[in-house]
Design goal:
Layout lengths: L4 H14 L16 E6 L2 H13 L15 E6 L7 E7 L5 E8 L14 E5 L4 H10 L6 E5 L8 H8 L8
Parallel strand pairs: 1-4, 1-5, 5-6
Antiparallel strand pairs: 2-3, 3-4
Helix pairs in contact: 1-2
């Protein structure tokens, strides 16, 4: 509904990837380079939403929430025109953060595997993919955040936020 959810999610992602936090930031801070997954429903919506907000429009790299001089390298994904597989982002400590782009349409199996510091779900994801995203952050003590309007009604993901108490969950 164009209220700025994705843009806000992109700002938080840029803070974590670069280590450049505003003075007023009271949330989690990383004092080292991180691994982050940013995601959407399809490859096209991932390119057109989180990738656009973070990196910039196609052909206009460096015009998103991540400053151009912090984007060290990018690599294209296969199968979706102009979608990136990953970007290497300069962290203020001198190391490189890794930003990977994923999408729900790939299925849960593509979400299994390595530990990740941050997972950003842009738009509501299926419960099994949400669970895999959570699992990726267990070893790192990382975080998962979602930016969406609950258009699917009382889905499993929405139900968990509204009815299950967790000290680790905030709305």
């Amino acid at each position: 509904n164009q209220n700025g959810k994705t843009f806000c999610g992109g700002c938080e992602a840029a803070y974590h990837l670069t280590g450049d936090y505003p003075s007023w930031w009271v949330g989690k801070r990383f004092d080292r380079p991180i691994v982050m997954w940013a995601s959407g429903v399809t490859g096209e919506t991932t390119r057109d939403n989180p990738q656009r907000v973070l990196i910039g429009n196609v052909g206009d790299k460096g015009r998103g929430t991540i400053p151009a001089d912090a984007i060290v390298d990018t690599a294209p994904a296969r199968g979706v025109s102009d979608l990136l597989d990953y970007a290497k982002i300069r962290h203020r400590t001198g190391g490189l953060s890794t930003l990977r782009f994923k999408y729900y349409e790939q299925g849960r199996q593509k979400w299994q595997g390595p530990p990740v510091d941050v997972v950003w779900f842009d738009e509501e994801c299926p419960a099994d993919i949400y669970d895999e995203g959570l699992a990726r952050t267990i070893a790192t003590g990382g975080l998962v955040y979602l930016t969406f309007t609950p258009l699917l009604g009382m889905s499993e993901v929405v139900r968990r936020f509204l009815t299950e108490h967790s000290n680790d969950r905030h709305d």
